[in-house]
Amino acid sequence: MEISTKIKESFPSLEPKECPYEQNGYHLSIEATKSNIVDIARFFIKEDFYLADLCCVDYIDYLELVYFFSKHDKLLRIKVTLKIDPEKPSAPTISHIYNIAHWFEREIHEFFGVLFDGHPFMVYLFLHDQIDFYSLRKKQVPVPDEDKRLLNSFKPEEQEDGFFLNLGPQHPSTHGVLRVVVKMNGEYILEAIPVLGYLHRMHEKMAENRTYQQFYPNAARMDYLGALNFNLGYVTTVEKLCGIEVPERAQYIRTITCELNRISSHLLWLGAFLADLGGLTPFLYTFDDREQILDILEAVTGSRLTYSYFRFGGLFNDVDDNFVDGVKKFINRLRSRFSMYDRLVTGNVIFINRVKDIGVMDRSYPIRYGCSGPVIRSIGIPFDMRKHEPYAAYDRIDFKIATGTNADNMDRYLVRIQEMENSLDIIEKALKELPTGPIKADKIPKKLKPPKGDIYHTIESPRGELGIYIVSDESDVPYRMRWRVPSYSNLMTFPELAKGTLIADAIATLGSYDLVIPEIDR
Amino acid sequence: MCTLDNIIQIIGKEVARLILGLIGVLVVVVVNALVLTWVERKVSGHMQRRIGPKEVGPYGLIQPFADGLKLLAKELLTPANVDKPLYYLAPVIVFIPVLVSFIVIPFDGFLQVKDINVGILVILAFSSLSVLSILIAGWGSNNKYSLIGATRSVAQNIAYEIPLLLALLPVVFMANSLSLRDIVEAQREGWFVWRWQFFAFLIYFIAATAETNRTPFDLPEAESELVAGFHTEFSGMRFALFFLAEYTNIFIASAIATTFFLGGYLGPVLPGVVWFFIKTYFLVFVIMWFRWTFPRVRFDQLLNFSWKILIPVAFANLIVTGGILKL
User: Fold this and answer.
1) Distance between CA atoms of residues B179 and B176, nearest Å
2) Domain ranges in chain A with CATH number 1.10.645.10
3) Which of A104, A375, B40, B216 suits A474 as a labelling partner, its CA being 20 to 30 A distant?
4) CA A154, CA A174: separation in Å to the nearest integer?
5) pLDDT tens-digit readout, A38-62
6) Does A341 reach chain B within 8 Å, measured CB to CB?
7) Looking at domain A2-148, which CATH architecture does it have?
8) What ipTM does this complex have?
9) Does B297 contact A at CB distance below 8 Å?
């Protein structure tokens, strides 16, 4: 591989190992050391790789930091591992190279106790300061005394040159329970610091305590708006890990229901975004449309919000003609509604003035922050996991990817509107080609015991790249499960974007991300 | 025996008329607020593809009473560390200009508490006072959202009072009087909105929407930014007074527009007072229509719009009107 030789040239001491992509979800794996990890990160950012994920696995004898570097323009994922001593765990930070590592490293610090040398703000990301053990370690490790000084929750102090305003956790515009501490000077924002963890439920720890089947409903609780997509992400990862083949009909139905779910998520965002801008009426209109999707999905899946429709190797039950007719009717209905939204919203002068050229993202954001979904597509990069790394039936259906050019709030709005239309096309094509046959693979064992190994798998959730990393130790319980969620990396861009803007613009920008907080907090 | 005549004799005819008028005004204010809350809920309901209140009374007509009763029964919370005199005073002060403004509005040829020869000046002077109450409400609440809302409100009201005044002046020129009844009477030959003052009407209406803090200019209480703006910390009856004042302000703004541009109580067949209310409530409906259709403008856009567009246009209109009248 081309990149493999390049790495060998730059780092003679490294030995890149090629891995079977079908099994592992990554192409190369490299074992780094503390002394060269920073240079490796520098090398990857020069080669236009973004840091897809950074997590830690506790193997009792040693802790392993796992870095995933991926590319936007082609499918290439490289796993870099770094073994560290569990007694006094520390590693050099790469947060000055990849901004996204800033939060990743804080997260690893609070769950594993790994100290990152040179990290500028080593404070807990999710937990409060009463927690005195590292929750994701396999053996109970108390927090050492010298580490306790870092355990202070964020409490801003009043300063001379501005005042602090707490946006949230109970604020109308921070949907859910996000708290953003903004330092303001009059109406202008000097600094914005997101404070997370108000909905933290430790799904990653829960995964280590239940079987693969038992953990399944948790996926929908992370992102309640894109629940089917999260379900699918989890199910496909485990299927890939166990080598389960899924029948064609099930793949198509998965695609259709996931796209319906995507539209319903985008519709809710549309209403909420306009409510953020002060237009309250569209919210009710989009809910009206969303209701139709929920009715359709309720008829097949049995629930309206947190679905558990997919099964390992197939589906819970088959769809009938009623479903097909209902979806067709809905497609026609929504298409006619788009022109109304256009007249009501897109052409409105006040709306245009509020979103055009506001919250313009820099071209370096995708690499530095690893943002994904409509946020990255508004920059003009056609990065969509459905095309990039196809799953379900997406590789058999031809569809367009909506992109923007200006990377402002208007583009993020337009991209999502366009995406809803594209999703309708996908559903229509999938319905036309819907094959007959079984909906469930035969001989799925009651207790899944995947072979030893690890896997990184991604799907495109309504908000962007959802990555799931599972380490299996041949038991029926995952050894470690890691969720890389899209809102997390999207929100990370907010402090930089909000700096120096008016509070009203910052709130419009925050709305344009389409954040789902339980997904960030997990 | 103490009869009504005796009382009137004792206190004098003029004072008796004022007291009676004030009682009448209070009734109108409260009834108007009740009607408008119901109308707003119905209008917003139908604009948003829902029905609005329908359970309490026929068509939900009793709903405003239920709402009012709820507000009366609620506990009056006083947050810690508020500036007590200001905090308690603000909801009261917000109500004074509202009451005074009603005194000079002619509901009909004879139905007016008192015709003051500088009527419009009284209204404008007192409506400026409402800014003061918003400012002390925001300052006294010990809440940053309230404070931002209040400062926004002051900047906004200063910016929009100028075009408001400039839009009304040409009409004063044409009617040659500051008394509201004279202005209405001057429109016997035709409403001013059709007699060259269409732009003045537009400017007035936009500025009045901003003065009453309604969408798209509802920045002092912008929900998605400032939670509830200057009245975030007010609960129960204190909040109700702000609420009452808001709806009454909308009514007054529409009533002035009716008086100045739409011929006030003038109209065929029906009695004048009916015409007055039809016109006024139509304008109120338009303001509500704005609220449920438009998103909110940004603060700098709001100020720019006033200083860079409304004020120059209003000035040009004033000069042209004055010039034509002089010639």
Assistant:
1) 9
2) 203-521
3) A104
4) 18
5) 888 888 888 888 888 888 998 888 8
6) no
7) 2-Layer Sandwich (3.30)
8) 0.80
9) yes
